[in-house]
Structure formats: structure tokens, C-alpha cells
């Protein structure tokens, strides 16, 4: 009991000492604005009066007489431009300036003065080079100041990027076309030159395509609601039709269109290729042409099913560890004018007894017939490895046609199958 009373007395003494220390150190702290009581004697008015005694009213202030944005209108790729912004100090203290961050294509080229007395102004020169594949350009640069109300000024440069000649679309893509069908291409050419031009005879960079191609070039009016090309001075519509006859496989060529200014000697089709180039006579407009010529008979590709160069497809089962039958599904596509005269069926399969396949009735989908193909791998008495180094080592499913104009198609099966 005595021990408890002693501890209680000691605790009381300690609390009293701590209170006195805290009161003497912090209890009567006088704030920056003077003594503050809780009866409302300190107001916003006398607080600001106290603040004015400590702080000066003389501060710098930024003014931008011409603003901080500049629209340069129209420029061509790789063209260089510059603009001068003005910065003025309308405050009562010196204004300091420092170049800050800028985008990679826009720089602060010149800062005449880094310190401005009240009433003084300086010029800030911005320089840029148009390097973009987009139709618009926008870059910025920053100027830092000691104006407490505007510590950073961001200058904005914007405009429209227009080539001398603009193509819509820039790349002619026809995706997949059956080998028995024609290819139709259409291109609009917009000229932004000050002088009138005329287009020469288009051509492809492939002699094989030129032998099968017919071209048509006609001037066209620029529509009033076409704001994107409102500044164009001329427009042309170019059509190309390529008759059937190209080999199956990917197509990656160029369509070349020579042009010259009206009144100058016409440019031959043998003119050197030069995209958006400049010469004394004419240049050539070049449009990329991409796509793929597929057989009248093809398949819908997937992560496991891929087409191969030279025709045909490979389905990759990979290494199978289960000794149960493995079933997969794919789709056979029949395109072209012969599709209604053609009946497909499953022909040779290999290895027999292991590979089996079934082709279901077609579903008509627009300009093509879609066949569902189901094929199965069934384990045998021995392990079978068809993961060989070339296609001849793989399993096989053959899709046959009763139409001589529609050749058969081979589906190779790549797999390793354990014994049952």
C-alpha cells in the first residue's frame, strides 16, 4: 500500500513539472501576427496590416502583350519556322527570366534579357522544325519567372502540316483477294502547290502488275464541307483495276504517278521516283500498295493455324502428352465466281488410322462459302512424331474440289502423339 502511495505522489509531481515546462515554452507563444486571443480581437484587417509590415508590396508582374500562343498556319514537313513572343514587366520589382523545359521539336532560340526592370520588355524567339507524319503540329516551351502569380509561362506553337501533294489514303491496302478476282484501287490526290499541275500516266513498280492494270485519272472538285483539304488548290481521283493473274502470296509494291506544272514539258513514266521532292520539272507521287493474293480455296488463320509460302496451311498441335484423341476445328473458305459450281470434300489423310477429318456443309457468308472442318488425332500402338524439319514430315489433310478451276488444298498437321 505504501509503495502504491509513493508511486502516485511521484507521478503527480512529474505531471506538475511537465505542465510547467510546457506552459513556459509553448503556452504563451506569440504568433507572427501578434497576440491572438479567443475573444475576436484579431481580424482580417489587422492581420493584413501586420503582414504588410513584414513583406514588401513591390513584386514583379508578367504581361504578354501578344499572348503566349502562335498559330503558324500551314507548313510542310522538315520546314523550319520561328516566332517572337514579347514579355513585359508591369510590376514594381525586377523580373527575372530563365529558360525551362521544352518539347523536343520546339526550342527557345533567343532570350534577350534575363532580368527586366519595371516597365521593361524583352523578346523571346521560338524556333521549330516540322517533323511529323500527322496532319497537325503542336509543340511548346517554358519560361520560368519570379512573378509569384505566374512562375512559369508556357508558349504554344500550333499549325497544320501539309505536304505539297497529299494522298488519301496514304497506303492502298486491299487485304485479301482471291486469285480469280480483280483488284480495285481508288486514291484521291490533293495538291497544295501555288501553280496548277497535271498528272501523268500512273504505273506500278511491278511489270507483272502493269500488264494486268488499267488506270483512270480524273480531276475532281473539292467539296465545300471538306475542311481538312480546304486549302488544297487541286484534286484528282485515281482509279486502278488489276485483272486476275497475279501469283498467290503477299503484294508489296508502289503506284507511281509523275506530275508536272501546267505549261512545262510532260514527264515520262521513266522519271526517277521522288516522294515530295523538288526538281526543275516534275516529281512523282508514290503510294504504297499492299495486300495478299490468296487461292480461291483458303482457310481462316488462328494462333495455331498459319498459311505458308507457296500455298497451303500448317496446324501446330505441338507435343501432346495425353494418350487420348485430340480434336481441332478450322474453317475452309471458298471464294470467287466458281464457288457456287464447286463441291469440296476430304481427300487423302496421313498417317491413316491416326488422322481423320470431316468437312461439314457450307454456310454462305457474303461473297464466300464457309466450311467447318473437324480433324482428329487418335493415338496408336506406337508413339508418332511428326514435328519434323519440313512440311513433308508432317501429317496431312487434303481438301479436294470437283471443279477443275479450283485446285485442291493441303493442310499439314505438326504434332507428336504418345502411344495409347
TrEMBL record:
It comes from the Bacteria. Signal peptide: none annotated. PANTHER family: LIPOPROTEIN-RELATED, SIGNAL PEPTIDE PROTEIN. This is Secreted protein containing DUF1573. It comes from Rhodopirellula europaea 6C.
Amino acid at each position: 500500500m505504501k509503495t502504491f502511495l509513493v508511486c502516485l505522489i511521484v507521478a503527480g509531481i512529474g505531471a506538475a513539472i511537465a505542465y510547467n515546462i510546457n506552459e513556459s515554452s509553448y503556452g504563451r507563444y506569440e504568433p507572427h501576427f501578434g497576440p491572438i486571443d479567443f475573444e475576436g480581437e484579431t481580424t482580417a484587417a489587422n492581420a493584413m496590416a501586420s503582414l504588410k509590415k513584414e513583406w514588401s508590396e513591390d513584386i514583379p508582374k508578367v504581361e504578354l502583350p501578344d499572348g503566349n500562343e502562335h498559330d503558324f498556319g500551314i507548313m510542310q514537313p522538315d520546314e523550319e519556322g520561328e516566332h517572337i513572343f514579347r514579355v513585359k514587366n508591369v510590376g514594381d520589382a525586377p523580373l527575372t527570366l530563365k529558360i525551362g523545359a521544352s518539347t523536343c521539336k520546339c526550342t527557345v532560340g533567343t532570350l534577350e534579357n534575363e532580368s527586366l526592370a519595371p516597365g521593361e520588355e524583352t523578346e523571346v524567339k521560338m524556333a521549330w522544325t516540322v517533323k511529323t507524319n500527322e496532319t497537325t503540329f503542336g509543340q511548346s516551351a517554358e519560361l520560368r519567372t519570379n512573378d509569384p502569380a505566374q512562375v512559369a509561362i508556357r508558349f504554344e506553337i500550333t499549325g497544320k502540316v501539309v505536304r505539297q501533294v497529299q494522298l488519301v489514303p496514304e497506303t492502298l491496302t486491299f487485304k485479301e483477294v482471291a486469285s480469280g478476282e480483280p483488284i480495285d484501287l481508288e486514291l484521291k490526290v490533293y495538291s497544295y502547290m501555288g501553280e496548277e499541275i497535271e498528272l501523268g500516266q500512273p504505273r506500278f513498280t511491278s511489270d507483272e502488275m502493269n500488264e494486268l492494270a488499267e488506270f483512270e485519272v480524273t480531276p475532281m472538285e473539292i467539296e465545300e464541307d471538306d475542311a481538312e483539304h480546304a486549302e488544297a488548290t487541286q484534286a484528282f481521283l485515281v482509279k486502278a483495276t488489276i485483272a486476275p493473274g497475279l501469283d498467290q502470296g503477299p503484294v508489296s509494291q508502289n503506284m507511281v504517278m509523275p506530275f508536272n506544272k501546267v505549261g512545262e514539258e510532260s514527264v515520262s513514266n521513266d522519271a526517277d521516283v521522288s516522294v515530295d521532292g523538288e526538281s526543275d520539272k516534275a516529281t512523282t507521287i508514290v503510294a504504297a500498295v499492299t495486300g495478299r493474293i490468296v487461292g480461291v480455296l483458303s482457310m481462316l488463320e488462328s494462333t495455331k493455324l498459319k498459311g505458308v509460302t507457296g500455298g497451303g496451311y500448317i496446324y501446330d498441335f505441338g507435343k501432346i502428352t495425353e494418350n487420348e484423341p485430340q480434336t481441332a476445328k478450322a474453317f475452309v473458305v471458298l471464294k470467287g465466281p466458281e464457288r457456287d459450281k464447286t463441291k469440296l470434300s476430304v481427300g487423302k489423310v496421313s498417317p491413316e488410322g491416326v488422322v481423320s477429318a470431316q468437312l461439314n456443309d457450307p454456310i454462305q457468308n457474303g461473297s464466300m462459302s464457309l466450311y467447318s472442318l473437324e480433324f482428329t488425332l487418335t493415338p496408336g500402338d506406337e508413339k508418332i512424331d511428326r514435328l519434323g524439319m519440313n512440311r513433308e514430315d508432317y501429317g496431312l489433310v487434303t481438301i479436294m474440289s470437283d471443279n477443275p478451276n479450283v485446285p485442291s488444298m493441303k493442310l499439314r498437321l505438326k504434332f507428336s502423339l504418345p502411344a495409347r
